[in-house]
Amino acid sequence: MLVVQLRYNFRVYPTPGQQIELARAFGCARVVFNDGLRLRQSARENGLPYVSDAELSRRVITEAKKTEVRAWLGEVSSVVLQQALADLNTAYRNFFASVSGMRKGRKVAPPRFRSRKDNRQAIRFTKNSRFRVLDDGRLRLPKIGDLSVRWSRTLPSDPSSVAIIRDAAGRYFASFVVQATDEALPPVECEVGIDLGLTHFAVLSDGTKVAAPRFLRRAARKLRKLQKSLSRKAKGSNNRKKAVVNLARAHARVADTRRDWQHKLSTIIVRDNQAIYVEDLCVAGLGRTRLAKSVHDAGWASFTGMLEYKAARYRRVFGRVDRFFPSTRMCSDCGRINDKMALNVRAWDCPCGSHHDRDINAAINVLAAGQADNGNDRGAQVRPASVPAPRCEAVTHPDAPRSARSVEGISAL
């Protein structure tokens, strides 16, 4: 049995009065966060010692409530204010760990001030606030009231915390953190390598091809129309505020559709395979090329993240293959690394006599490389030393023939 920490999101529908109370809580949490950040920045500029967490809480919350300019902080739950400082402390710890080299990956910037104009506002309640889910399904929050929740499934256990989130489209969500015990899925013999691209979102080593749904491209005409409507509205007018919400809702619909599709596809792959191997693409770098819009529309990073956490949850094997591994140019039969090829070459012949589909061959090589890295004893070919692949070979050319609606093997919608 494996105990994991999961997050369940549900749509909530606050009344107009509760929306005002939530807006007040968002504002108080933002002010406390900014006050704490300002205090620490001032101490650093004046050469004073770093303000500790306890001292920061005392000065920014406890003593601030006694002043006239911050007396209204007492109108919201104190847990919301404490959690705002907890977020600030976490941001500082991540920044210091990144600067010192203890944190791997991309460099983390220092915390910045929060703005009331930010598209996303959030507050968090812990067990100390005594929030609870009532028998009638409503969520009771201190100093806010009972929120109506649209439950799509039951929680596996009592939540340890809940975050109330308001997105750019004006929607409210309750995000519960729970402890769940999951059993491993029945073991299977299949293992799969995945080659990600733009013409086909994913090509599996068994020959299955999943066409790229291109949700953003398909909604481009409607988004363009809403964007033009927004640009014609006078700044500061009510019509402009309505246009902003309409545009945000259209973008949210695209993101929700993409997320739902990726969840379904990743669940199928994890359920049907004992081990999943993918190429470790540099999405941030590809996002700075001329293919940036298509790369972001594909959402490779979120998809591989889903595969990784679902594999860990259901006791599957997940591995990433080095991004410089020449999966496209290497023959999956003889191991020969051929010269680079243009992106419009979708099939090629190896001097050994093998004929390869470009993407399927890459997926087979990713599978073999992943098995070799994990010490698999099933006779997988051990890959040669890593050879840097040309930058133009990392993705598929957007002008290649494709269909956003046709899918071979797995439904795109």
Number of DSSP-assigned strands? 14
Give the terminus-to-terminus CA distance.
34 Å
Q: Which percent range describes the beta-strand content?
A: 15-25%
Largest sheet: 7 strands, antiparallel
Instruction: Give the tally of structural domains.
Output: 2
What percentage of residues falls in helices of 4 or more residues?
25-40%
Q: What is the 3D shape?
A: globular
Q: In the CATH scheme, what's the topology name of the largest domain? A: Nucleotidyltransferase, domain 5
Q: Note poorly predicted spans.
A: 376-413
Explain what you see.
There is one protein chain. The protein has helices at residues 16-45, 53-62, 78-100, 215-218, 220-231, 238-272, 283-286, 292-298, 300-313, 358-373; strands at 2-13, 121-126, 132-133, 139-141, 145-150, 161-166, 172-182, 191-196, 200-204, 209-211, 275-279, 317-321, 347-349, 355-357. The strands form three sheets. It has a seven-stranded antiparallel β-sheet. Strands 10-9-8-11-12 form a five-stranded mixed β-sheet. Strands 13-14 form a two-stranded antiparallel sheet. The chain is of the alpha+beta class. Helix 1 packs across helix 3 and helix 6 crosses helix 9 (300-313).
